[in-house]
Amino acid sequence: xxxxxxxxxxxxxxxxxxxxxxxxxxxxxxxxxxxxxxxxxxxxxxxxxxxxxxxxxxxxxxxxxxxxxxxxxxx
Amino acid sequence: xxxxxxxxxxxxxxxxxxxxxxxxxxxxxxxxxxxxxxxxxxxxxxxxxxxxxxxxxxxxxxxxxxxxxxxxxxxxxxxxxxxxxxxxxxxxxxxxxxxxxxxxxxxxxxxxxxxxxxxxxxxxxxxxxxxxxxxxxxxxxxxxxxxxxxxxxxxxxxxxxxxxxxxxxxxxxxxxxxxxxxxxxxxxxxxxxxxxxxxxxxxxxxxxxxxxxxxxxxxxxxxxxxxxxx
Amino acid sequence: xxxxxxxxxxxxxxxxxxxxxxxxxxxxxxxxxxxxxxxxxxxxxxxxxxxxxxxxxxxxxxxxxxxxxxxxxxxxxxxxxxxxxxxxxxxxxxxxxxxxxxxxxxxxxxxxxxxxxxxxxxxxxxxxxxxxxxxxxxxxxxxxxxxxxxxxxxxxxxxxxxxxxxxxxxxxxxxxxxxxxxxxxxxxxxxxxxxxxxxxxxxxxxxxxxxxxxxxxxxxxxxxxxxxxxxxxxxxxxxxxxxxxxxxxxxxxxxxxxxxxxxxxxxxxxxxxxxxxxxxxxxxxxxxxxxxxxxxxxxxxxxxxxxxxxxxxxxxxxxxxxxxxx
Lengths: 75, 230, 326
Description:
Number of helices of chain A: 2
Number of domains of chain A: 1
Distance between the termini of chain A: 85 Å
Distance between the termini of chain B: 21 Å
Largest interface: B-C, 32 and 30 residues
Structural class of chain B: mainly alpha
Number of strands of chain B: 0
Largest sheet of chain B: none
Shape of chain B: globular
Largest sheet of chain A: none
Order of helices and strands of chain B: HHHHHHHHH
Helix content of chain A: over 70%
Number of strands of chain A: 0
Oligomer: heterotrimer
Structural class of chain A: mainly alpha
């Protein structure tokens, strides 16, 4: 009896799809676990910064305003 | 925002770029050689003795016309910002003019280049491909609308890739998905113009082109400040 | 507090695992074969949700790109990137499943059907977005420029919705079943002297009416069908019961699941159409519909999970880079 026999082909296909999903699920699950573990360790260190630094927007804006001022006088 | 000083700086940037271009002629030479190569290559087999004799071949002619324009534009139009970064003059420009003026100046410069490019490609097509235009006004309108879209998209994308590594390839890769809707509609409008269709028939196409250009222009103006900050 | 939250999250993830596992089984074992497509019809259970997730990812990526440009928080950029990467993954899945299906049903892997075009453009955009990111060294600049590109793409892509009807006049996707708007008209051919043309184009195929015969109230039209590019031709004999007006035989057209249908017969004029495999309603069956909706929900959940995990990994990477470890 071949795998492609119409009588069992659907069951074979279902089994393959299920297997792929199970493998994928546990792969994702393990990555998820390890990521959370790492995240916890990183934030529990005493010297860890609370949040990541956002770009200093205000500094950028100030510089831009200066630039506009210069262009008004110059050119 | 639209103060007299903005117009002055825009004009100054355009003049500066044109003067630099006329000295080196890098962008214009690339554009023109690329266009000539494409059209000549096409015309060898499809030219005066090929499909161009066939009155029904308007679709192919319109597609070929826009292929020549698009790829020539991809080869030359990134110069506007790339040249500034290569020469190291970008920081000075940042200090000397507001972002809006820089964008407007570079946009006008790219639009001029596109106009020159389109004029050349159309002339070459007329000479080598038996280009017969059924509705010249519509033909000009479709080229103009498509060209403005091409100019806007290439300006903002040139600014995006100016400080990346592999610029040339990246420029085309980034531009193609954004320009695909524009190109499809522009080819359609050009095809109608070649076939001699009336304005009313091409109206949906032209409206779509105008809407696309306006949306892209508005988005580019809003986003350019973010791209340009040092 | 945080452990309880983790437990709840774990339960949701386990539920997702069982949920999608059930969908996989139901897709093959519970959903009945489709009337026209047979077992091939099962592919919509996976194909449509992946395409939906691709679009969803594009939306999320654009939203977080906009947020990044406003607030400049690296976390927002992480999310935009994570969504784009998951989007690329799902757009490849949607393209591959669709393409396999297209080969089996329509006879070629790629047809520039409108929806194929739009998913292709999304794929290109994801690829371009990632290419741009990989080409810029400086962290801050990379985030900023990638966000700008994502927003530019978000502005221009919707135009495809208006453009696409110009690329192809009709869609191969089963619109006639789901929406009553697409162009599903056939052609009317006639024998000599009937006033109607003898030869015409039906879709991209040439059809020629050879003759019309009648037997026991059943009219049979002999039609020569020539494939595009004249690669092959075949004589098909679709027939219609003249009393009831119901088609009797609908032969398959060379190597595809399309069928040639004789819709009407008036004297020496025959109206022919292509019966699309999906035209009898892909989701009309309640089991199919239920499994389909479950799959849609499941894939959305799967996308969300992948996206959150990826964003978390990127966050850790960013922290370590900031502290000079990476």
